[in-house]
Every structure is written in C-alpha cells, then in structure tokens.
Amino acid sequence: MSTLVIDQISATYPNSTQPVLSDISLSLSAGELLVVLGASGSGKTTLLNLIAGFIESSKGKILLNDRPVKGPGADRGVVFQDDVLLPWQDVQSNVAFGLQLAGVPLQARLAKVQEILKRVSLEGFAKRKVWELSGGQRQRVGLARALASDPQVLLLDEPFGALDAFIREQMQCLLLDVWADTHKPVFLITHDIEEAVFLATDLVILAPSPRGIVERISLDFSKRFIAGESARSIKSDPQFIAVREHVLQRVFEQHVHTLNNQSVSV
Ligand SMILES: Nc1ncnc2c1ncn2[C@@H]1O[C@H](COP(=O)(O)OP(=O)(O)OP(=O)(O)O)[C@@H](O)[C@H]1O
C-alpha cells in the first residue's frame, strides 16, 4: 500500500525572496484521491513539481513509502495538461517509452501496452500516430504512459484543462475507473471547482496570500460514482451543488483577497 507524506514543505524559487509554498503538510494513501484547488499562483504546480522531484524544497521533506523523494523517478507517474507525447511516434511507442528506457524486453513491453490501452479504452489505437488523435485520446495516451511503469502514485497537473465539457466529464469518469481498478493514490491539481468536488476524496484549497492551505474537505462523490451512480446524477444532487457553492465561495474569497492586496501595493 503506497503512502505519500508531505511534511512541512516550504519552497522558494532562486530568484525570489518570498516563499511560494509555506509549511505545507499533507498525506495521501491508497484509495485516496487528493485534489488541490486554488487561485492562479497559489503554488499548485510547484507542489506537484516537488513531489515529482523536478524541483527541491527549501524546507521540510517528502516521503514516498518512507523513502525521501530526491529527484524524478519511475515510482511517480506524471500527466500534464499538455500531453508531452512524442508526436512522431505511434501510441504504442509513446506508452512504452518509459519501459523501453527501463530496459524491459520488447515482447513484455508490447503485452504491457496492450493491457494498459485496454484500461484507458484505447484498444485498437496502438499503431495510430499522435497527430491522428483527438485531445481526449491524447490525454488517455498520457495517462496510459504514466500507468505503464506501474508507479506508486499518479500525479496529474490540470490533465483535462484543454478538453470540452463533455470529453472532460468522460475523462473524469475514466480516471475514477482507473483509480478504482489500480488502487493507486492520485494527486491531481485543477482550476475547475466542479471537477475538484466530483473527483476528490480529499480536497485541499491553497491560497496565494497569505500562502497556505485555507481548507481541507473530505468528500465521497467519487466513491458514489465507483459504487455505480452516474456522474450526471451526482453533479445535479443538491448536496453536490451545496459543496460546489461552498468551495466556489472560498476560492472567490482568495481572488478578492489577492486583488485587494495588489491594489494596495500599486
Ligand atoms: N521557475 C520559477 N521561477 C520563479 N518563480 C516561479 C517559477 N515557477 C513558478 N513561479 C512563481 O511561483 C508562484 C506559484 O506558481 P505555480 O505555477 O506553482 O502556481 P499555480 O497555483 O500552479 O498557478 P496556475 O494555476 O496559474 O498554474 C507564481 O507566483 C509563479 O510566478
């Protein structure tokens, strides 16, 4: 059972005197889907980059299964908004890329790719070139590539941000199915409040000023989806709408606070 622990993390970029993140503590275990929501500039991507090992914290530590995170590794699968696929390669080669780097033999790679493509509903797409895919299909390939090396945790940075509302909801449902099938803990950042409330078992709202976590909420809408209720039914439930409005209010407060601070300092 994988566990990610973020322990009193602070981060400051080299060219800045102000921390981007200050004293953030979070934990994420199997069966949990942690969503970080927050105004632009609140440090969401910085937090994901720290977990991915792309940047280092100035204080605190990050542990994955009790081992300190030091640099990038195959134990963390990352999916970005811009899919970062190899455009000249086909779907199969993109999904198998990490396995190839890890020296996995060809036949084992192909078998793994078939299994993963089935999981993300892309059976029959193995030989398609990336430029022959829709935006939603590309994000499925991104998710498949992240899953291929069987990571301990999935990290997703605005993965559905560029998709239209219908495809976005399809991808949310697909992610929940993958999450339920694989039992992998998922860390996801988004700007989209409805998406955050639908997906999260744990929702964290980050603020840009003063920096930090303004609220943590435990939710069970994703578990209701896994139990068989439809996304439409959940999202139109008055209980869902009440939570969504509450979260919207908290995020708007952050925007107003930030704007007021900016106008004071002008
Ligand atoms: N490489 C960098 N060097 C210096 N400052 C940076 C760097 N990357 C981000 N920042 C600054 O850190 C702060 C947080 O950025 P970050 O991208 O983590 O926020 P975010 O919440 O993900 O924002 P958005 O929702 O707009 O993507 C911002 O003020 C940003 O300008």
Automatic annotation (TrEMBL):
Keywords (A to Z) from UniProt: ATP-binding, Cell inner membrane, Cell membrane, Membrane, Nucleotide-binding, Translocase, Transport
Molecular functions per Gene Ontology: ATP binding; ATP hydrolysis activity
InterPro entries assigned: AAA+_ATPase, ABC_transporter-like_ATP-bd, ABC_transporter-like_CS, ABC_transporter_ATP-bind, P-loop_NTPase
ABC transporter domain segment(s): 4-233
Database matches in SUPFAM superfamilies: P-loop containing nucleoside triphosphate hydrolases
Alphabetical list of CDD domains matching this protein: ABC_NrtD_SsuB_transporters
Source domain of life: Bacteria
Annotated family: Belongs to the ABC transporter superfamily.
NCBIfam families: PRK11248.1 (NF008421)
Protein name: Taurine ABC transporter ATP-binding subunit
